[in-house]
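REVIEWER CHECKLIST
Item 1: Sequence provided? yes
Item 2: Single chain? yes
Item 3: Sequence as submitted:
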Amino acid sequence: QGDESVVKTASTMLPLGTRAPDFSLVNVDGRTVSLRDLEETPAVLIVFMCNHCPYVKAINEKLVRDTEAA
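Item 4: Structure as written out by the authors:
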C-alpha cells in the first residue's frame, strides 16, 4: 500500500484576497526578496514546489510559459 497521508492532509490555504503577512524569502537566483520590495507590484504569486515531484514536473513547463507571458 502507498502512503495516503498527503491526500488526507488538511489545507491551510487562506481565503483568496487575504492580505499577505510580510516575509523575506531567498529567490531562485539567490537574492532575498521581501513583500515590501513588491509594494508597487499589482499581484504576487509565490510557489513552493519540489522539483522532483511528479505533479510539479507535469505542470512546470506550463507554469514557466504562463509566467513569462504575463
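Item 5: Key structural point noted by reviewer: Residues 25 and 32 are 5 Å apart (CA to CA).
Item 6: Recommendation: ____
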